[in-house]
Amino acid sequence: MEEPEGNGKWGMVVDMDRCTGCGACITACSMENNIPFVGEKDAAYGRSMQWIRVERNWKDEFPDIVTDFTPLMCQQCGAAPCESVCPVFASVHSESEQINLQVYNRCIGTRYCGNNCPYVVRQFNWFDYAKDMPEPLNYQFNPDVTVRRRGVMEKCTFCLQRIRRVEEDAKAQGRPVKDGEVLPACGQACPSNAIVFGLLTDPESQVSHESRNARALQLLLEELGTQPRVVYLKALRSPGSLPVK
Amino acid sequence: MTTKAISLPQSQPREHEQEDETREHLLLDPRPRSELNRMVMESMLTTTPVFKIVLGILGLLAAVCLFGAWIYMGLTGIGVAGVRRPSYWGMFIATFVFWIGISHAGTFVSAILRVFKAEFRRPLTRAAELMTTFGLAAGAMYPLIHLGRVWVGYWILPYPNNRWLWPNFRSPLVWDMIAITTYLLGSTMYVLLPLIPDAAMARDRSTGWRYWFFRILALGWRGAEGEWQRLRTAIQIFAFAIIPVMFSVHTIVSWDFAVSKTPGWHSTIFGPFFVAGAIFSGVSAVGMILFMIRISMKNMDYFIRPEHFDAIGKLMLIFSFTWAYFYFNEYLLAWYGGDLSDQYVWQALTKGDFAWLWYLMLICNVVVPWLTLWSKRVRRTPWMLFGIGFIINIGMYTERYLIVPGMITRNRFPFMWDSYAMRIEPVIAVGSLCLFLFLYGLLSRFIPLIPIWEVHEGQVATMLRRIGKAKVPTISELD
Amino acid sequence: MPEANVHLAVFNNVDPASEAIVKLRELGIQEDEMQILSGLPYTSEMLGRARVWSMIPKFSIAGFLGGFVISLLLNLGSVWQYPLHVGGLPLYPIPTTIVVTFEISMLGLLLFTFLGVIWECGFPSYGKKIYSKEISDGYIGLEFNCPADLHTQVHEALSALGAEWIHRTEAVDL
């Protein structure tokens, strides 16, 4: 079966200097992607399901405390360790958008992908959280995105529904996708524009520009060979919190 | 110079003593075949009320704790278990590895010992092989139990469908599925083959529904030359072929962990380490089962003797060394120059939340066997070996627990470090243990647990031969 | 053959049984008209007979090769038909193919060995057969087909060796 021809490699640049740790990206992502509320008890148990998290690490002592914020979402790895271990092909690589897909219908819930993700960005539906939403709260669901039931893994999709909508509109109008036309929910909500999104294969796009930024940039856990699509610009005020190598 | 005559003490006639000593050995204490048959039939047919009550309780516990809790979890969601991010796998998978490990005992006793022509295996092979079959049955349920959507779990099987989808053969879980299916079918066939002549014997000595049951199982066996020769050829092929399958099954289970990128799991030594651990816990479980058979069935103290416990005890000690060797390997490498992420994992195990389990494991797996199993007296005492085997199995379960939920709580992002707590998992684990014991106890009254033809063959092959003044046991090769 | 000519002589040891075979051969009874039934496996050499022909190793090899072919079809064929890229791994990786192929080939080997035994022995074969319950009690049965005129000679010869004689055996339900 032929994959439809996509536009190229989508990527993201996150500027850790601009990130203020406000959490707007988390809220926007939850609203856009129908992420369920797990309740107080389960959240305390570590089961909250936000697809993007802002890692907050403290340095030094009061009153000179420095906080480092690292927004972390699925890195859409080129050689994703989560894909090869799924026994039923629920986690596959998209040829057209070059991102990592999670197929909710196919997932049987072995959770191997969750273990194998070195960035720990995958979430699992431990219960039917969305089932008991009292009316009219269920009207908040985004009709473009599936509401997942229990037993299924999920993760950030680079707002694939937005990418697809823009691509289809552009195709209908017979033109290529313009840079900046696609913005995932997190990028749209960020008040300091710390998240830039676009086609890495287009050398003129803003994201390609930023990824060539002279400021020391890094790919998280690059030495693991996962080939992530998210480039992090280091904050000038502090080295930024690096993951454990 | 005169030489003083020194009178030597009279050398006692030693032959009688020697005879008594050797009669301790099963193969040197022959009885007529009809007597052996009668003893085994009697052990199958005799049940005490206590046995029936215990079996009933086990069955009830299995139904409620295993199937009841599983159905409840299936209807409510995996959230009733203790797993969470980042420990997506928890006690279910640790118990799964434990059961697959127990199942290696049977193949070790009946295949490897048969290949090496170790005579002491003769009465033990069927009891051990049944452990393999039921251990695999208990273990094979766990990949289904821990699935998020168990009702579509059959998608992992390769079958043509209109979604044009096959399972991902590059995934270790699919290898698990294939390996466990192979091992389960293989060990079931390996139990059935030597059972045919014994079923024929039981058919000849039964009436009523038992007669019909054994008649069907015996497939019309008569003991003709051709039948025996073909059976023995097949058993030989099975013995040789099932050994690599046994090694590969637990290696493939270990690759579930070793091929991942999790620090602590990604270790090249996991394959042999898991196999050694499996045989270790399996052989200890054989010791436990033999003791339970001896005390719960009539006439079994004729067949299962202190010499067998002695041999099992030596194997337990040897595999304790092997396990300790592999485990020290792991620890040394991480401690000496491992990546920081590896070192954090081992620190959590040895100094952090899991430290008490770490010390428990070392005491159970190393200290207790190394202090006790040297003594021949300890090894030949059945209840002592049962106790040591029980302690070893606790230690081995703790080792799997430390590996599965223990190590994955320390990933590469300290912000995401968390712990693991048990919720419904112990209930289901206890249920699976009760199912194992229930099936084993039930089947002990339906099929003869001792392969009588093999014991008889051993008794025919073993005799006392005089060399000088001593009578030594001599074993002939009958094949 | 009329059932009246089939006899079963039961011995309590393998020595007189093997002597009896020699005697029967001397009296002119053919090899394939005699058969030993026992509760223990005695080799053909012990009984002084020719080895029984068996094709089980060939069954095993056929099973191995069958499993090998099926595993290649599953492993490589399914990906060739419906290619899906996962994790940066090649579509036809050799190491994973080795693992799956080994397991399925061994399954084929074991399964076909088992089926080979069942097939060659003609199992399951219920119904009336020449048998005696003493055989599973450790006695050795010598089943043979002798023409009526040799009857008394055979009887004499075998009783001299200590046979427990079972005349004109009725076939027992097995």
Fold and architecture overview:
Helix content of chain A is 19%, strand content 17%. Chain A is an alpha+beta fold and 245 residues long. Chain A has one domain (10-233): Alpha-Beta Plaits. In chain A, strands 8-1-10-9 form a four-stranded mixed beta sheet. In chain A, a hairpin with a 6-residue loop joins strand 2 (53-59) and strand 3. The termini of chain A are far apart. The mean pLDDT of chain A is 86. Chain B has 479 residues and is mainly α. Chain B has a single domain (24-411, 420-475), classed as Formate dehydrogenase/DMSO reductase fold, CATH 1.20.1630.10. Chain B is built from 18 helices and two strands. A two-stranded antiparallel ribbon of chain B has the order 1-2. The radius of gyration of chain B is 25 Å and the shape is globular. Chain C has 174 residues and is of the alpha+beta class. In chain C, 46% of the residues lie in helices and 14% in strands. Chain C has helices spanning 14-26, 44-47, 56-81, 94-120, 151-160, and strands at residues 6-11, 34-38, 128-129, 140-145, 164-166, 172-173. In chain C, helix 3 (56-81) runs antiparallel to helix 4. Chain C is rod-shaped, with a radius of gyration of 25 Å. Chain C starts with 5 loop residues before the first strand and ends with a strand. The chains are: A alpha+beta (245), B mainly alpha (479), C alpha+beta (174). Chains B and C meet through helix 2, helix 7, helix 8, helix 9 and helix 18 of B and strand 2, helix 3 and helix 4 of C.
